[in-house]
Design a protein that fits this description.
The protein has 13 helices and 46 strands. It is an alpha+beta fold.
Length: 888
């Protein structure tokens, strides 16, 4: 089996026997060269699954293939030409896992397939498989079917009830399956299910847990070479052999241990394929991978005992060391591989131990570990290419260097080798030096004690002075009636002294942070308060000063004045601490209010003297308000009329698919009634059933297609209608939004031959008012149809969306009759129209101008000439939305 290279028949003893590839000139050749899975059923047939060519069958004694392909005209044909796996159960039924259509069932001796497709709705109720791609199929001893997929996890299908059960990984349940990416199954000689996963190792369905399945999982943490499993086979002794992406592993079920074999042991260096494994006669096994196949007899595979390590050389300052009988200063009294003691001086600060295992056949696959007791907390592992342990600046004391080794992929280590190491203390750590240190420490302690006592007295005097200063400050604050506050800018902590007792912020329980006090500032005064703080903290103003209202203890508003300044900044100029005072200025504000009242009375006298002028101004204002109100009503009427047109148009568009769906449903009901009548009379024939099946499929597809069309129209209508009736802003893609608006204008556009194109060089996503944008685009399009193409010409409208820095730009062009300069200059005036008496209100373009300049906060510029069409450019602020949700 070759990926993309057809099918190869290999005899382990003779080599390649035959090759099978697709030949377009032969109908009995392999249907496709991409072979995914091969199996031989009990009747001797060879079944070959391909990706793109469906299913092939070679009968015993034949050299040609019988093909099974998907036929859209034949519902009983294969569901999908991309097949991932095959499995034959005890009844001889062949189960076929497909890539995109669930799985199929082909009973023994049958030529038609039963489909089990994926359906999200049915899968949620346990009536369909949970994934479109089925990678592994197997059955239990009681006939239930196990299904696995790379994204859908594990499922159990009960044939008697047609129910599906899903089993997913759960971090909170240690008995759940190890992972949801299933690659392969095998049922062992005991009837127990083993599951291979991609990334989660090997899972085992525990015996006697059929009613409520429980699993145990083995992964790389348990000794498996890697967590990506390709295939699982059982040998005659009950051991499992597992192919992975890095080699082959043996699982001893009695000892529950893994033995891993890698490229150094003869496995393929690039790993093995999913489901690329099979048992051969005589107990041999074969695993297939990208670089070929691996064939072996499990009983011939011998696991060598773990190697033993010996120390081979000792280095001091990166130089070899002779024995002590040659060099009196040497730390070695015997050969390093014989053990003994390594006695180091205090200044031997760079020592190295070289070691090796006495295995010269597979030395590159050996992994070494070393541990220096008394220094290292964990074993240090090193490859065969670096067999050295180096230590620098070891403290004085006794140590034991432990050495061990294992073969790569295995967890069992060989016998440890131990070396004793001793580091002599330095001269300044001798007993005599210790006595000197003790005497010096006593003298130093006496000196420190004297200095501490003197410092303690100075701190007491300073604390007394601070307390006296604080008392004087409190008296000063009491005399002025003010409150002192101190803020730690970084933490926001606020300390208050001589609190103003008349304020609610004092009488109520409030936290000690600046943000806890903001709710007590009048909402109208809070912006100015925050602005004053920011100005001072950034250095824009030398002093912080703000007057604001805050509730007093009786619930009335009291005026206070808060002043302060930053007294500490860091090296970069950021404020760290700010101190200031707060005073009650309610009396001052009352005086200001009395002064304002006096000024108001003076103004009243002036107003009485100019009463006639005031009355005239008032009447004029009322007239202007009525005109403004009337204009607003007309604009709102124009907007509601547009929404009404939208409703009528969408209702007309929905009527067609709904009508077709009703007709198809009626036809389906008639066919169902006819079949029921034939069934009751016993006259039902196969042709009648096939006719009903064909009619059911065609009617269902017709109903589904038209209902989907109606649903699309309703979604577009809902979105645009909500946007038109709601002035709220949201994040939109301007190109997508304009295209949805044009969909709702479909009824009006279908009655005309005009063409509208919308394009954008790149998505323009911004936060804007879609309702206003709908009114603008619909008014512009209808204005072009009514005025620009009034002479009967076939019109073309081009809408181009782009971004210019922080602005969105919408360029609207048509090839209509255009306008002269006087008409162009009055285009946005209210009640100005060139079709007075023909239904024009003169408010359409005025509404466009108001929406662009007010709702969108932008500008609109028009350029036109007779016979040249119209060109409008709309610009409005559209800051880029970083991390914004995708616009709809």
């Amino acid at each position: 089996m070759l990926e993309g290279g057809g099918l190869v028949h290999v005899d382990p003893d003779k080599g390649v026997v035959a090759r099978y590839r697709n030949d377009p000139a032969r109908d009995d050749s392999l249907s496709h060269d991409f072979v995914q899975y091969v199996t031989r059923t009990r009747d001797g047939s060879l079944w070959v699954a391909t990706i793109g060519g469906g299913l092939n069958r070679m009968l015993p004694g034949n050299e040609g293939f019988q093909r099974f392909r998907h036929d859209p005209e034949n519902p009983a044909s294969l569901a999908d030409d991309a097949i991932l796996t095959l499995y034959e159960d005890r009844a001889g039924t062949l189960w076929i896992g497909t890539r995109d259509h669930g799985f199929d069932e082909l009973c023994a001796g049958c030529s038609t397939f039963v489909h089990h497709p994926h359906s999200p709705t049915k899968a949620a109720n346990g009536l369909a498989p949970g994934s479109e791609s089925i990678w592994a199929i197997s059955s239990s001893v009681n006939g239930e079917l196990w299904l696995g997929s790379l994204i859908g996890g594990l499922e159990r299908y009960t044939l008697a009830t047609g129910q599906y059960e899903k089993f997913r990984f759960s971090r909170s349940d240690p008995t759940s399956i190890g992972g949801d990416s299933i690659s392969t199954f095998t049922v062992d000689s005991r009837g127990e299910l083993w599951i291979g996963t991609q990334g989660s190792g090997l899972s085992h369905l525990l015996p006697d847990s059929d009613r409520k399945p429980r699993f145990e999982t083995f992964g790389s943490r348990d000794g498996l070479a890697t967590d990506a499993v390709g295939a699982i086979l059982e040998d005659a002794d009950g051991n499992l052999w597992i192919s992975t992406t890095v080699g082959i592993s043996k699982f001893d079920r009695l000892r529950r241990t893994f033995t891993n074999f890698g490229p150094f042991d003869g496995t393929l260096p690039t790993g093995y394929w999913v489901n690329g494994g099979s048992r051969l006669p005589g107990g041999r096994m074969v695993f297939a991978g990208l670089d070929g196949i691996t064939i072996f007899n499990p009983r011939d595979v011998k696991v060598p005992p773990p190697p033993k390590v010996v120390a081979t050389r000792f280095l001091l300052q990166n130089e070899p060391v002779a024995l002590r009988w040659k060099d009196a200063t040497s730390p070695l009294d015997s050969r390093i591989w014989e053990g003994g003691l390594v006695d180091l001086r205090y200044d031997d600060d760079n020592v190295s131990f070289e070691f090796a295992a006495l295995d010269f056949v597979n030395s590159e696959s050996i992994r070494y570990s070393y541990l220096l007791d008394g220094h290292d907390s964990n074993w240090i592992e090193t490859p065969a290419s670096r067999r050295i342990a180096t230590y620098t600046d070891l403290p004085s004391g006794s140590y034991r260097l432990r050495l061990r080794a294992r073969y790569e992929g295995n967890v069992e280590f060989g016998e440890e080798t131990v070396l004793d190491v001793r580091v002599q203390p330095s001269p300044w750590k001798s007993p005599l030096a210790g006595l000197a240190y003790l005497a010096a420490a006593i003298l130093l302690a006496l000196l420190v004690g004297w200095r501490v006592r003197a410092g303690w007295r100075r701190r007491n005097l300073a604390a007394l002075a601070i307390r006296e200063s604080e008392e004087r400050l409190k008296l000063s604050l009491w005399g002025s009636g003010g409150e002192l506050w101190d803020v730690d800018i970084k933490s926001g902590h606020l300390h208050r002294e001589n609190k103003l007792a008349s304020l609610a912020v004092t009488t109520e329980r409030v936290g000690d942070f600046l943000d806890d006090y903001r709710p007590y500032i009048h909402s109208d005064d809070l912006p100015a308060f925050n602005a004053a703080i920011r100005s001072h903290l950034t250095g824009a103003s030398p002093v912080f000063e703000s007057s604001y209202r805050t509730p007093d203890a009786q619930g009335h508003w009291a005026w206070v004045l808060t002043r302060g300044r930053v007294v500490d900044r860091d090296a970069e100029g950021r404020a760290l601490r700010m101190v200031g005072t707060t005073h009650d200025i309610s009396a001052l504000k009352s005086a200001e209010a009395a002064l304002r009242k006096l000024n108001d009375e003076l103004e009243s006298r002036v107003e009485r003297r100019t009463a006639d002028l005031s009355v005239a101004n008032r009447e004029l204002k009322e007239t202007l308000d009525r005109l403004t109100h009337t204009q607003g009503q007309l604009v709102e009427a124009e907007r509601l009329a547009s929404l009404g047109g939208l409703v009528a148009g969408v209702a007309h568009e929905i009527n067609t698919p709904i009508g077709i769906s009703v007709t198809a449903a009626s036809h389906l009901e008639e066919e169902a009634t006819r079949i029921s009548r034939l069934t009751e009379s016993g006259e039902l024939k196969r042709s009648d059933l096939q006719r009903f099946e064909q009619a059911s499929l065609e009617s269902s597809r017709l109903i589904l297609r038209n209902l989907q069309r109606a649903a699309q129209l309703v979604r577009s209508f809902k979105q645009v209608a909500v946007d038109q009736s709601d002035e709220a802003r949201r994040v939109v893609d301007l190109e997508v939004c304009i295209k949805e608006i044009l969909v709702t204008l479909g009824p009006a556009l279908k009655r005309s031959p005009h063409q509208i194109t919308v394009h954008a060089a790149e998505p323009v996503v911004c936060n804007t008012a879609p309702g206003a944008l709908y009114q603008v685009i619909s008014n512009l399009v209808m204005n072009s149809i009514i005025h620009g193409f009034a002479d009967g010409r076939t019109g073309a409208i081009d809408i181009h969306v782009s971004r210019d820095g922080e602005h969105a730009v919408i360029e609207y062009r048509d090839n209509g009759v255009g306008m002269d300069e006087p008409t162009c200059s009055r285009m946005f005036d209210p009640f100005f129209t060139t079709r007075r008496g023909s239904g024009g209100s003169g408010l359409g373009m005025h509404v466009v101008y108001n929406l662009v300049t007010k709702a969108l906060g932008g500008t609109i510029v028009v350029d036109s000439a007779p016979g040249k069409g119209i060109n409008l450019c709309i610009r409005f602020m559209a800051p880029r939305e970083v991390g914004a949700m995708q616009a709809v």
